[in-house]
Write a structure and sequence with these properties.
By secondary structure, this protein is an alpha+beta fold. The chain is built from 1 helix and 4 strands, in the order βαβββ. A 4-stranded antiparallel sheet has the order 1-2-3-4, with no helix packed on it. The radius of gyration is 14 Å and the shape is elongated.
Length: 76
């Protein structure tokens, strides 16, 4: 995908600085509400969040949708 600033964003490398793992407080509370926390059992977050390293814009995707449901940009 290409950011509005023109930078090409990709999550092909793992790990990368583009894709963020973001859980809501309720999601994280449900994950931690157990006796043991096994990393392979942690579900994917509801939202897929990408951050542009150049302009710091945030793109929020829900599910497998190809279009962001929310976009945040820094005010100048």
């Amino acid at each position: 995908m290409t950011c509005t600033c023109g930078m090409e964003l990709s999550n092909h490398e793992a790990p990368n600085d583009i894709e963020l793992v973001v859980y809501t407080d309720k999601e994280w509370d449900k994950i931690c509400d157990c006796d043991t926390l096994e990393p392979w059992r942690i579900p994917h977050p509801k939202y897929n969040v990408w951050r542009c390293p150049m302009c710091k814009s945030i793109y929020v995707y829900e599910g497998i949708e190809g279009t962001p449901v929310m976009i945040y940009r820094l005010e100048k």
